[in-house]
Amino acid sequence: MKALELKIPPPVVALLVAGGMWGIARLAPLIDLPQSLRVGAAIACGLAGVGLDIAALVSFQRARTTFNPMKVEKTSALVRSGVYRLTRNPMYLGSVLMLVAWAVYLSSAWALLGIVAFVLYLNRFQIAPEERALASKFGVSYAAYRSRVRRWL
Prior knowledge:
Elements: H1 10-27, H2 35-63, H3 90-106, H4 112-148
Helix pairs in contact: 1-3, 1-4, 2-3, 3-4
């Protein structure tokens, strides 16, 4: 399983999961929600996700370090400011919020299984190797940050 670590970019994983969620939603019974409520909630979750992603990118740019999740070894600074004070993985949390928006828009409780799959995949194949690399590179500083700030929320 180690062969999958840091191999598939998280946005690609999110798109694959979104496709699976769409397939599940087509096969499963829908939740009967008023369209205005469904669309409004989906837009709100989606915007929150995009906002988190943008805030995380701005934090990386200010720190002048890479935001490429496939090249963790090129990280030149440990980012602990901005949204990184609240969560160690704001970009991944942003993707989760966008997937929640998609599930709400699809009106499918079963589509939420895609979000569970996304989180489990990221925890194992993206976040765990990132955390090992950051711990190796930043040592005590990363350990202190990790003890203060949660992985997701």
